[in-house]
Amino acid sequence: MLYLAALLVHCVPLAMGQYDICKSWVTTDDGPSWEFYACQPKAMRMKDYVTVRVDPAGITCGDPPERFCTHENPYLCSDECDASNPDLAHPPKLMFDSEDEGLATYWQSVTWRRYPEPLLANITLSWNKSIELTDDIVITFEYGRPTIMMLEKSLDNGRTWHPYQYYADDCMEAFSMPARRVRDLSTTSANRVLCTEEYSRWAGSKKEKTVRFEVRDRFAIFAGPDLKNMDNLYTRLESAKGLKDFFTVTDLRMRLLRPALGGTYVQRENLYKYFYAVSNIEVTGRCKCNLHANLCTFKEGSLQCECEHNTTGQDCGKCKKNFRSRSWRAGSYLPLPNGSPNACAAAGSAFGNCECYGHSNRCSYIDFLNVVTCVSCKHNTRGQHCQHCRLGFYRNSSAELDDENVCIECNCNQIGSMHDRCNETGYCECREGATGPKCDDCLPNYYWRQGCFPNVCDDELLLCQNGGTCYQNQRCICPVGFKGVLCQQSRCEVDKKDCDGAPGAGGSLATVALGVLALQLRGWVDL
Ligand SMILES: *[C@@H]1O[C@H](CO)[C@@H](O)[C@H](O)[C@H]1NC(C)=O
Ligand SMILES: *[C@@H]1O[C@H](CO)[C@@H](O)[C@H](O)[C@H]1NC(C)=O
Ligand SMILES: *[C@@H]1O[C@H](CO)[C@@H](O)[C@H](O)[C@H]1NC(C)=O
Ligand SMILES: *[C@@H]1O[C@H](CO)[C@@H](O)[C@H](O)[C@H]1NC(C)=O
Ligand SMILES: *[C@@H]1O[C@H](CO)[C@@H](O)[C@H](O)[C@H]1NC(C)=O
Ligand SMILES: [Ca+2]
User: Fold this and answer.
1) Pocket of ligand 3 (CB under 6 A)
2) Whole-angstrom Cα distance, residue 401 to residue 387?
3) pTM of the model
4) What is the pLDDT of residues 144-203, one digit of tens each?
5) Where is the EGF-like domain (predicted)?
6) In principle, which of 180, 393, 414, 502 could form an S-S bond with 389, CB 3.0–4.6 Å?
């Protein structure tokens, strides 16, 4: 142990600066102790850990066997793809093998024999782990690069996808985007998604084979041309919103939209020379461990951080059990050069035994009650240990007590519910006539209009009479001559003056006359 410690101390000065050590045993005036640093794993060749999927089904050539030609030699179509013959097959795994010098092995698609229907293929790479890119993604195409393609990325294991870069020989025509170069981006636009024409033009299929996603050029905006000033890059990664995430992926997808044409037009009489062939996809990056690990290992089919600083999880994204007296935080590259470990702390290390489930960083002693209690519980929690949900929130049954998502807002409909509290399963207390978990629906025979009101009319029990029509369960629209809530009364019965057949102008004269007579009888009008 001591020997190991001595060795570590010895190694530290050499390795410092690039965050590759999580802790070291140091001697201070108070005696020897551990010192902790922000740390991250080394960059690796990520293609060794990837799972690949090629879509649509049947896009890989060779089933049934198919002949193909090349742009260099379009009339000598002697090459064959045959999935059942290992020497002639081109399965997806050949995009990730290590190649012997000179001999390219590649995945190949079927040819464009269905032209003019587009020849579309998706190549999806999944790691089931967040990865931070540290170098360019380089895709090598044999027999010419696509004239239109798109790179997409996911940050949530393929649930949602976002464009990463567009590639076309004519960006305006293909994507209605102006062509741009990564080299021309600035510090404020380093994470812009753009369309580039640099990798899609025809240059002879042997000469220009690679399509890049330029990570280094984007880093160089901050770190200088040879990436000498990495400190500046790390500072920016901490401070610029969204910059770290821009270089983080769990999945990548190449959407191949149009193959190399070898010229301006598609030659319909020889469609055997149009197809995709990818010999290599190089992805260089490091496991994202939130600066809490310097090792990442491949276990049970997935990459996993070997978490330090008493953190745990695939990305060291939470505190270990019994180390939750403070809420979890990612380590930081700052201050330079060693960063901050932001380690998780043992429960009870500060005060008595006050666990706050990671929702508070502070405890306070309340003298007259003689208790220690968590202060300013976050994430909508409350209570001595931040173990309850605030009013208006309820417990997320699929989250642990130390999860940031442990309390879910009740979201009761303000009009339909009695108040904004709900029970343990998220049900609100509804006013009369309202229903549904959030009280935003009405019971049968009620209608919604700033709350639930009993139907005035409907198609069953409260039918509008005499040919009236029910308007949104709120009122009957009565035909001329009828009134009442359900048009049940004839105006004629109520008031003779409303009877059908009463002449228009004469009627109203008569009405005036009758009115005058009535008032006269009461002695209010002198004639
Ligand atoms: C490729 O993936 C996109 C989603 O990113 C999907 O819309 C499209 O249909 C897929 N194409 C093929 C050929 O599977
Ligand atoms: C992804 O990784 C997690 C954590 O290592 C593991 O539990 C899960 O089974 C993996 N999923 C797949 C599809 O490999
Ligand atoms: C993690 O917990 C152990 C005790 O299990 C302790 O010795 C160590 O110092 C802690 N590490 C950090 C970074 O707090
Ligand atoms: C409940 O917690 C789980 C686990 O953290 C989370 O994935 C889910 O989104 C939460 N549900 C809601 C409604 O917030
Ligand atoms: C919450 O209220 C709903 C609707 O009244 C009810 O079905 C459910 O059982 C209640 N849940 C609890 C835990 O009381
Ligand atoms: Ca290969």
Assistant:
1) 34, 36, 309-310, 343
2) 7
3) 0.69
4) 999 999 999 999 999 999 999 999 999 999 999 999 999 999 999 999 999 999 999 887
5) 453-488
6) 393
